[in-house]
Amino acid sequence: MRFSLLALLSATTVLGTAVPSHLQSRDVSNDDLNQFKYWVEFAAASYCHDNYASKAGHKLSCWAGNCPQVEKAGATIAYDFSNTTATDTSGFIAVDTTNKAIVLTFRGSYSVRNWISDAAFPYTDPDLCTGCQAELGFWSSWKLVRDPITKALNSTAAQHPDYELVVVGHSLGAAVATLAAADLRGRGHPSAKLYAYASPRVGNPALAKYITAQKNNFRFSHTNDPVPKLPLLTMGYVHVSPEYYIKSPNNATVRAGDIEVLEGDVNFDGNTGTGVPELTAFSAHHWYFEEADGCKGSGLPFKRV
């Protein structure tokens, strides 16, 4: 994990397009902020065991108290998935009748510190576009559950034809959600919205450009969170644009003015510019409008696979 910031900076000219935020930043409205705070609650709910290992009709709830709006909306499980693949991709499809949304949510990792330290992040061809390369583990996590999820999504959408599809995730779940949304947009769900909180980079410049061009992408980073800095630029990975960069400190209420919208697959005015990924900064990874992974319980991030 000892990579210099100079190496990261020098990779920019080859790997991505750095865009200064003062040229292409834009304001976040209070309505936008309310949306951001609402959809992250589904990501928070995905860490609660009773939600991703439940039965159809189960009402979403969070024992950590971090999804009160979702609980109030009465969102219910239409389909859940966990413990069925080697990657243990977990999450659920929920129906939110209050907001007329079908929400596909992926749980984040219970062992983030381990894959930050040990993962090699190899590429694979996701067959999404010419020249596109995706991170193997993230793509495999989606591909292994794609068929049953797509079948369940199509069935649920047929029952609710006027509902929008929202794809959500935090951390590793955000990476899987990003690739799932990109894939599903070409599989009958072109207007799927993505809310990716604390996502690592998922692919090379060709893939990032492809997903960016699809629109409806809301990718969030927070101060010096180390996870969005991975895989490294020197490995050829860049981000989907834009970046919604949260500048407020940990455990603080996020206001609209605390979020800067930055364009470009590499932008050093946001999270990337805060230095190399450091595990001592991991507290910033938890706080995305709230403690997004509060349902994990103490100690689990170090031990679960």
TrEMBL record:
One of its GO terms (biological process) is monocarboxylic acid biosynthetic process. InterPro entries: AB_hydrolase_fold, AB_hydrolase_lip/est, Fungal_lipase-type, Mono/diacylglycerol_lipase_N. GO terms for molecular function: hydrolase activity. Keywords: Hydrolase, Signal. Pfam families: Lipase3_N (PF03893), Lipase_3 (PF01764). SUPFAM superfamilies: alpha/beta-Hydrolases. Residues 9-79 form the Mono-/di-acylglycerol lipase N-terminal domain. Residues 1-16 form the signal peptide. Residues 103-233 form the Fungal lipase-type domain. It comes from the Eukaryota. CDD domains: Lipase_3. This is Mono-and diacylglycerol lipase.
